[in-house]
Design a protein that fits this description.
Strand content of chain B: 5-15%
CATH topology of chain A: Alkaline Phosphatase, subunit A
Oligomer: heterodimer
CATH architecture of chain A: 3-Layer(aba) Sandwich
Order of helices and strands of chain A: HEHEEEHEHHEEHHHHEHEEEEEEEEHEE
Number of strands of chain A: 18
Strand content of chain A: 15-25%
Structural class of chain A: alpha/beta
Helix content of chain B: 40-55%
Largest sheet of chain B: 6 strands, antiparallel
Number of strands of chain B: 17
Low-confidence stretches of chain B: 1-19
Mean pLDDT of chain B: 91
Number of domains of chain A: 1
Structural class of chain B: alpha+beta
Largest interface: A-B, 99 and 102 residues
CATH superfamily of chain A: Alkaline Phosphatase, subunit A
Radius of gyration of chain A: 23 Å
Chain lengths: 476, 1112
């Protein structure tokens, strides 16, 4: 057993039996009486998800990762390149490495205009008119690089710091390191808008870390969590069951020496039981005002905007309650993810339209509630796109220079960091590796990325492998 | 420039002093301007502590040496200096410093310095770790316990003890006594049978088994229980699953589309059978490494299928990427995964650490890693044919005999004179017809049947628009010549000369890789699998299948998968070659056949990027297929000629399911050339040349027709006397083509058909027996190909080539000699405990671990320095010795361990022992263990009565929940209860693993997992509380109960449930609680206790009681 802490801190037999006596009955009662029981932050039992002290004073407490599946184009969003306009339709005048499809066309100018916004005057393309209004909150990194041109590897790399299946996701590492402030739901929640990225759920997995830290996928729709709905036609039927289970479990405890595991399992049922109430309450948006709903685009006539708006609103509700890491996947807009090998204009437009207003709403709402200061909002895909066309009207994958942005959580807003070359192809100034991004996010959360380790396969593994540099330059 | 050179020369000629002073100035420049710059901007990453890319810029000897890929300074020429190019940000992939460009002034200084000749002082490199130091470090590491030879140890002799019943106990007891701890009392029988049954079968004991054991008063009752359990076929399913964890078993390749690994389930079945049959572990390992090379292989006694070769599937169970931008890097990743699994599973070694550098802790050098990688670059993926020889070899030889007999009879019986006359006459008549004479007139005139004249006319007409490379085209042209034979002959002569010149020219940029002419070159160049192609090319006169329509001679100098029957399948793989020319041209014909170019063992050939490496051959006439490989110049490759119902690996399951049956596909390949020219070469036409020469001497239609008849007859006579059909290869092809043309036209066939006819029926009958071959993913040997060291793990940074060999720590550095991969030699070293003492240690530790929850070495996959040392080293050593001496029998090991008092202790620890040894390192009581995911699911099925005990075969599709989304999602879901099959038979789809199993720590199959984690997450509780599967099974269990005990009172029923679920009677309290619950639920439902819902609720609770999944 490499990690001693995930069977749960032992508690005394007496404490256990006491709790079992009151146990589920009492809990069920609480749950029934109070819709807001999830807010209680029950921390009776410690356990692996209990909040843990960071290495040093953190600037942020939570992360919301707006994952842009497929790889949005940097030169069409946040990294304007006039040279593309000048040389539109001509062969690109630089050495082009092998691309994913290797169907290299001519220079393709952006179909969207860029305008300057905010006090910072940072240019944003017309794809994001709403996010643009929040530009003074954003720290735009234009010099991201990845090591992979293929979706799956790049996804794993972005999420886990390693290009293959099997490593823990960023959210898993962070909950492993910090626990979570909300004990009614898991600490790492993935809000699935409809698209699971290539590589599947393993992008959110706990890898060699205990399963406790894996991302719990909440699906958009009526049944957000697997097996959350109890099969019993009435509450009493279920609470009878739980009461019997408890009394029978007690006899088991008397028969063996290694009680810790069983005690942990029993506690587990308590959390599960709480989740049955807490999650539906959490996802119930009826309490949100009309203005808030509008802010997030829930009244949009475009269904994907409503979907993503709901996810963004949920994300706020989750961090509000102390969930450590929330990741959002994109809604299905019927034109493929941000992966426009052809039909750039239509595809990017649909994808942008789905997320633009919800993201702006999220940033605005977080700020209004004072949550933005303690929440890192991260936006971006696994790579960017080529400045020259694939075929005639698409763009191929580009891991050599692309854009991501951060907001809130101790990041310097209204700034641009790093630069790509004149085509927007290769990062040339202040290159930022995925490992650097990870190191920086951990740093903001008060974690030294070199000290967040887990022994596996004879090595002390890290999210940042053997690399990673904190980007002090972008910290507020 | 010129002047400058002169000046330098002049200085040198005058003497050393001026140069010296120039040096001194240069060195001053270096010290004042350059060194501070390097220290400030470079040394952090290229200095004494970190040397990225192997480059150090802090001391001059290192600056001169450069990086892993060579010098970084070219004195005098900044443009050619890597250092300068890097700081200029000249190349996209090398830009230093990475965090931001230097100022223009700084760059200028560096440029100036290089232009000056990069002067710098000589200084000693500080006494860093020298080679000898390194060696002594490695010598030190090699003394680690797990590399040492097996020690001969004996169980300790202890004062009389009633407790010890097995030598195992003596080792344990010695430690107990030394630590002053007391062992827990023996477990009661009910606990014992439950523990043993779960341990060996992964299922709860049935009521019968329980009663038999509890009622067996004899002292050796447990002994006999073990006999029964070890003989159960479920044993292999339980222990096979443990093994599958070690080899990251999965049936799809993950990545973007989750393609199937076809027939991976055969490996799972192999493992189950191997454990059930107690195949000696050394043999099992041998088969895993080199089962494809064992002659004879081990065959399954039941089916005759090749077992040994299926073991090698384990190499191919990893992830696979369908369109890597860098194919060599993809191979490097694949090999890293293969060696990672190999190292951990068999050797408990973290080999893969040495991919980028010498291992940081263990005595494994980077050379070791690449010496091992060579075994894999010399091996290939295949879908191996498993059937016993009698299934295909016997019918093939039978068909071959019939076919050859028909040919021999024909050749013996045909009459040369008559044939010549008849053919000549038919052709002459045809010429007359082409010149306008009515058919019956011409027929009568030449005394040939009208039908034959018509056929001959048709034959010649069919050559109307054909190149004169076909000699029959000459006949058409001459017969229809309007201006007289002579003038046309001149044209033909010129045409032929152009043809010949073009042919000669077209071969100038070409290397002929294979013409399929000689048996010996075929043996050197090709690896054949399956039965379709036979073991050599077609040579001389060989008759095609008797079932074929029409009968034909096979074309000599080809490989032909329809040689005996289109139903047969097979694959030819070429030797390995480096890609040196940009085009590969393949002359082929076929239907649904495929040609693949496999580069760096990359088999998931597909668009984008790789689509053209797969050519579908779907035209019955020979034509050239061109493959552009210019993108991969310098890479290693081989060619596959495929006639197989297995799709290429980049397809999904539904396709496979459709295609697993014999199909009438075929492929014939005539020639393969490598070329600088995008256009394929053309062939010369020797036979046409001869014909034209004959006509030059005597330009008459008579000559023409006689010539054809003579060629045909001579060819058949040569075949009769088994002489080569022609002196020249191409001419032999042309001659056979001519014979076939006449055969098809029915101008020769009557006789052949007569000879063949009596044999055809028998032939067809045999052919009908040919079914679909059984196949499995497996290793196949390729050409020997040593791998080079990838400096810092980067394939583009080529270091020295390392000959193939096993790890030096075990087998020294002598390379393995083999023309193939050499895996068999490797395997023999791995299984020799004198060479590899760690092999038995690792395995006995695994067996121990699965009985006690923790290994004697608690890190089962790491026996290196970073692993934990054994808690009972002598015991481990003794078990290893016992294992070897008892024929590596795993079942003997179970018996030995399970019959010990140590195993039979209860879970109730002595409080004093707990105080002294809270972590139970000394085994003073039996630790509580939570069942694995599969055992939980299987136990639910067993208890509910739903368990379907069917073994083996393709897996059941996973039940798809709405949460299982993404590319590659199967189009249909499996049943909720998995058809009641044991969990090991659920299709393992990398990207769609079964959530219920994952929740209980089913490992993600990416590497060896010798020890699963035991986590505790709310999803586990939610699953058991609310999942439709558990609820469904609870109801089923209740139905079974009420069906079996329709009239019993409720107490009896509850007792029955307890026995089934927990192998014990309920206590009075438990019984009471259950009865109250039944009443409460009945009340809530407004019904009585005979209501199925009430019982289903009780059953559901019992699934949720912790005792159901925790085994004491």
């Amino acid at each position: 057993m490499q990690c001693g802490n995930y069977m749960g801190r032992p508690i005394s037999r007496r404490e256990m039996l006491l709790r079992c006596t009151a146990g589920f009955g009492a809990l069920a009662l609480t749950a029934l009486m109070s819709e807001r029981s999830y807010g209680e932050r029950l921390r009776l039992d410690g356990g692996p998800l209990a909040p843990k002290p960071p290495h040093y004073k953190p600037k942020a407490r939570n992360v919301i990762f707006l994952y842009m599946d497929g790889g949005p184009s940097q030169v069409d969003t946040f990294d304007p390149k006039p040279r593309l306009d000048r040389e539109h339709g001509q062969p690109i005048k630089m050495k082009v490495p092998r691309t994913q499809f290797n169907n290299v066309g001519n220079v393709l100018k952006s179909p969207w205009k860029f305008r300057r916004y905010g006090e910072s005057g940072i240019p944003v393309s017309d794809l994001f008119p709403n996010v643009a209004r929040c530009v003074d909150e954003l720290c735009i990194i234009r010099s991201m690089v990845s090591e992979f041109s293929e979706h799956t590897n790049a996804n794993y790399f972005l999420h886990t710091g390693f290009g293959q299946q099997g490593r823990p996701s960023m959210g898993a590492w962070i909950t492993y390191g910090l626990g979570t402030d909300c004990q009614d739901v898991p600490g790492f929640i993935v809000l699935n808008g409809g698209l699971i990225p290539p590589g599947g759920l393993d992008n959110f997995a706990s890898g060699f870390l205990p399963a406790t830290f894996q991302g719990s996928v909440f699906k958009y729709g009526k049944h957000p969590v697997a097996n959350l709905v109890s099969p019993e036609p009435s509450r009493r039927l279920q609470s009878n069951k739980l009461r019997l289970m408890q009394s029978l479990d007690r006899t088991v405890l008397g028969r063996i020496s290694d009680a810790d595991a069983i005690e942990s399992a029993i506690r587990n049922y308590e959390l599960a039981f709480r989740m049955q109430t807490a999650v539906p309450a959490l996802l119930d948006l009826r309490g949100e005002t009309r203005a808030t709903r509008k802010l997030y685009g829930l009244d949009s006539d475009y269904a994907p905007t409503r979907t993503y708006g709901t996810l963004c609103l949920l994300a706020r509700r989750l961090v509000e309650r102390g969930v450590r890491f929330v990741e959002l996947t994109c809604p299905n807009v019927g034109a493929d993810r941000w992966d426009q090998h052809s039909g750039l204009k239509e595809g990017h437009e649909r994808n942008a339209r789905a997320v633009d207003q919800p993201i702006a709403g999220l940033l605005t709402d977080l700020k209004a509630r004072g949550l933005l200061e303690e929440t890192i909002v991260l936006w971006g895909g696994e790579f960017g796109r080529t400045p020259m066309a694939q075929g005639t009207n698409g763009r191929d994958h580009n891991p050599f220079g692309f854009t991501m942005w951060l907001a809130g959580g101790g990041v310097k807003g209204g700034t641009v960091y790093g630069a790509t070359d004149e085509y927007g192809y290769f990062a040339v100034e202040n290159k930022v590796e995925i490992h650097d991004l990870h190191a920086t996010i951990l740093h903001l959360l008060g974690i030294d990325h070199t000290r967040l380790t887990f022994r596996f396969g004879g090595r002390d593994m890290r999210l940042t492998d053997v690399k990673g540099r904190v980007l002090y330059e972008i910290l507020a | 420039m010129y002047l400058r050179a002169v000046t330098l020369f002049a200085l040198a000629a005058v003497g050393l002093h001026p140069a010296e002073s120039a040096d001194r100035a240069g060195i001053a420049f270096f010290e004042e301007k350059i060194r501070p710059l390097l220290v400030a901007r470079c040394v952090k990453c290229h200095g004494p502590t970190v040397q990225k890319a192997g480059l150090r810029l802090d001391r001059t000897p290192y600056i001169r040496t450069g990086s892993d890929s060579g010098p970084v300074i070219s004195p005098g020429t900044p443009d050619r200096s890597k250092l300068i190019r890097a700081v200029r940000y000249q190349d996209p992939d090398l830009q230093m410093p990475p965090t931001g460009k230097l100022s223009k002034a700084e760059i200028a200084l560096l440029e100036q310095w290089v232009r000056m000749g990069a002067p710098m002082p000589d200084e000693p490199s500080e006494p860093a770790a020298s080679q000898t130091d390194q060696n002594s470090v490695f010598r030190q590491r090699a003394r680690h316990w797990s590399y040492s030879p097996l020690r001969r140890v004996y169980p300790p002799v202890l004062d009389a003890s009633d407790w010890a019943t097995s030598p195992v106990d003596l080792f344990v007891l010695r430690r107990h006594r030394a630590a002053g701890v007391t062992a827990a009392p023996p477990a009661d029988r009910a606990t014992l049978i439950r523990r043993a049954t779960y341990d060996l079968l992964g299922l709860p004991p049935s009521l019968d088994q329980l009663q038999t054991f509890l009622n067996d008063p004899r002292p050796d009752a447990f002994d006999r229980l073990l006999d029964r359990l070890l003989a159960s076929p479920h044993y292999g399913e339980r222990w096979g699953r443990h093994w599958l964890d070690l080899v990251r078993y999965a049936e799809t390749r993950g990545h973007e589309f989750d393609f199937d690994i076809f027939n991976a389930w055969r490996y799972r079945d192999y493992v189950i059978r191997a454990f059930n049959a107690d195949i000696p572990y050394d043999r099992f390992v041998l088969e895993h490494i080199a089962g494809d090379l064992l002659d004879p292989p081990r065959r399954d006694p039941g089916t005759g299928l090749n077992e040994s070769i299926v073991a090698t599937a384990f190499w191919w169970l990893g992830e696979g990427k369908h369109s890597p931008v860098a194919v060599k890097r993809e191979e490097a990743d694949r090999i890293a995964n293969q060696l990672n699994v190999f190292g951990k599973a068999f050797l408990g070694q973290t080999l893969v650490c040495a991919r980028c550098h010498d291992h940081k802790f263990d005595p494994i050098r980077q050379e070791d890693y690449y010496a091992m990688a060579g075994f894999l670059t010399s091996s290939r993926y295949q879908q191996a044919f498993l059937d016993p020889p009698e299934k295909f070899a016997a019918p093939c030889s039978h068909m071959g005999t019939l076919r050859d007999r028909a040919l021999r009879n024909w050749l013996r019986h045909f009459d040369p004179q008559r044939t010549t006359l008849r053919l000549k006459s038919a052709l002459l008549a045809a010429c007359d017809v082409l010149q306008g004479k009515p058919v019956d007139v011409a027929a009568a005139q030449h005394a040939v049947p009208t039908t034959e004249v018509k056929s001959a006319v048709e034959l010649l007409r069919s050559r109307a628009k054909v190149s004169i490379a076909d000699p029959l085209a000459v006949a058409f042209r001459l017969a229809t010549a309007q201006t007289g034979i002579d003038s046309v002959l001149g044209d033909l002569q010129r045409e032929w000369q152009t043809l010949a010149a073009e042919a000669a020219e077209s071969y100038r940029p070409v290397t002929v890789f294979e013409g399929f002419w000689s048996r010996s070159s075929f043996a050197r160049n090709w690896f054949a699998t399956g039965y379709a192609f036979g073991d050599r090319p077609v040579h001389g006169a060989e008759l095609g299948p008797l079932s074929g329509e029409p009968l034909r001679l096979l074309e000599p100098g080809t490989v032909d998968s329809a040689r005996l029957s289109k139903r047969l399948e097979g694959v030819l793989r070429s030797r390995t070659f480096p890609i040196e020319r940009p085009y590969i041209h393949v002359l082929a014909a076929g239907q649904g056949g495929r040609i693949h170019v496999v580069i760096d063992n990359f088999v998931l050939i597909r668009n984008p990027i790789y689509g053209d490496l797969r050519q579908v051959v779907d035209a019955p006439e020979l034509r050239w297929y061109t493959i552009d490989v210019s993108m991969w110049r310098g890479e290693r490759a081989y060619i596959e000629i495929v006639d197989s119902s297995m799709p290429t690996p980049s397809h999904n399951l539904s396709r496979e399911a459709k295609e697993e049956r014999p199909r009438d596909d075929w492929i014939r390949v005539d020639e393969i050339v490598f070329s600088d020219d995008e256009r394929p070469p053309t062939h010369s036409a020797p036979l046409t040349g001869r014909l034209l020469a004959a006509l030059r001497d005597s330009p008459r239609l008579e000559t023409l027709c006689t010539w054809y008849a003579n060629v045909v007859v001579q060819t058949l006579l040569r075949a009769r006397s088994e002489q080569p059909l022609a002196d020249q290869e191409q001419e032999a092809k042309d001659r056979v083509a001519l014979v076939n043309a006449f055969l098809h036209a029915g101008l020769l066939g009557g006789v052949l058909a007569e000879e063949a006819e009596p044999l055809t029926h028998e032939y067809t009958a045999v052919e009908q027996t040919l079914g679909a071959p059984a196949r499995a993913p497996a290793m196949s040997d390729g050409s020997a190909w040593n791998e080079y060291v990838h400096i810092r793990g980067i394939p583009e940074n080529k270091g020295p080539v390392v000959p193939r060999r096993f790890l030096a720590i075990f087998a020294g550095t002598t390379p393995i000699e083999s023309s193939g991969s050499g895996r068999l030699q490797l395997a023999r070293q791995v299984i020799d405990p004198a060479v590899t003492p760690v092999l038995p240690r690792v395995m006995v530790n695994r067996v121990w671990q699965h009985h006690f929850g923790r290994g004697i070495v608690p890190t089962p996959d790491d026996f290196g320095h970073m692993g934990q040392p054994p808690t009972h080293p002598d015991l481990l050593e003794w078990l290893a010795q016992y294992f070897i001496e008892h024929d590596w029998s795993v079942k003997r090991l179970h018996r030995l361990i399970m019959l010990s008092s140590t195993y039979r202790m209860s879970g109730r620890a002595d409080p004093g022992a707990v105080a002294r040894d809270p972590n139970n390192r000394l085994y003073h009581h039996m630790p509580l263990r939570r069942l694995e995911a599969e055992a939980i699911r299987d136990a639910i099925l067993a208890v509910s009565g739903r368990l379907n005990r069917t073994m083996f075969g393709p897996g059941v599709l996973p039940y798809l929940t709405p949460f299982m989304e993404g590319r590659g999602r199967p189009s249909t879901s499996g049943p909720l209860d998995g058809d009641g099959r044991r969990s090991i038979y659920i299709n393992v789809r990398r990207n769609f693993l079964t959530p219920m199993l994952l929740v209980f720590d089913y490992p993600v199959p990416f590497t060896t997992i010798g020890q699963r984690s035991v986590s505790n997450v709310p999803a586990q509780a939610l699953t058991l509380m609310n999942s439709p599967f558990v609820v469904q099974q609870a109801r089923r269990w209740a139905e079974k109960l009420l069906h079996e005990l329709p009239d019993s009172d409720n107490e009896v029923r509850v007792r029955r449930l307890y026995l089934e679920a927990f192998s014990r009677e309920p206590t009075a309290t438990e019984l009471h609680a259950a009865m109250e619950f039944l009443a409460a639920q009945a009340k809530e439902y407004g019904t009585d206790a005979n209501d199925i819902r009430v019982w289903a609720d009780l059953c559901h609770v019992l699934f949720n009681v912790k005792e159901f999944i925790f085994i004491p």
